[in-house]
Amino acid sequence: MEPNEALGIAAQVAVALAGFAGVVVVFRPQSLHQWSAVDRFRLRLLLHNSINPLAYALFGMFLLTIKPTPLWIWRECSLFAVLFQLPGMIIAFRSSRKLSPGHFKGPGKILFYSVGVLGGASQLIQIINIVKLNLFWPFFLSILVHLIAAMLQFARMVLLLPEEEQGK
User: Fold this and answer.
1) Which of 121, 149, 119, 125 is nearest to 138 (CA)?
2) Which residue intervals of 29-168 are DSSP H helices?
3) Using CA atoms, how far apart are residues 160 and 153, in angstroms rounded to an integer?
4) 49 within 8 A of 155, measured Cβ to Cβ
């Protein structure tokens, strides 16, 4: 599969996942401002993990339209991914620190930290791609990690009941 095809498919999946966030909001019994802090955090993660791969794929497709294709294209895409991801990582980390340890228990804790480790490893591979590799697969891996995280988050939000606020 050529990079332009892979990026196009990834962009379509990312748009679909972002749309599923709207489905989650519509089918919940309360309005969004009445959700628990952890459920709002999960929705932000779902949106974050849908918007980022869409932005990455669109940026990659944009660079592929330049003729002749730049020699540094995948380095530039990885740099874009790292810079675009950084604010989201900071916001997610700060938001997770505001939640009580009770919100992160059992399978949810394992899932949260596993996806965090995968995301961190993906970022490290992006930096290696910028410095040395200049290959497509590390850039696409970053897209893939976000899409998998969004799919897991969507399934979790649909299949599990909304959580009650701590202290109620």
Assistant:
1) 125
2) 37-64, 73-98, 106-128, 136-159
3) 11
4) no
Rounded to the nearest 10 degrees, the angle between the axes of helix 136-159 and helix 3-27 is 20
Q: How far apart are CA 149 and CA 3, in angstroms?
A: 21
Picking from 129, 55, 61, the residue whose alpha carbon sits closest to that of residue 86 is 55
Q: How many domains does the chain have?
A: 1
Q: Decide: 148 and 111 in contact? Cβ < 8 Å.
A: no
Classify residue 166: in a domain, yes or no.
no
Assess if residue 168 is contained within a domain: no
What pTM value is reported for the model?
0.91
pLDDT, one tens digit per residue, over 29-80 is 788 788 888 888 989 999 999 999 999 999 999 999 999 999 999 999 999 9
Residue 164 inside a domain? The answer is: no
- Which candidate, 125, 155, 160, places its Cα nearest to that of 140? 125
Residue 28 to residue 2: CA distance in whole angstroms: 40
DSSP letter, residue 102: G
Is the model's pLDDT at 166 over the cut of 70? no
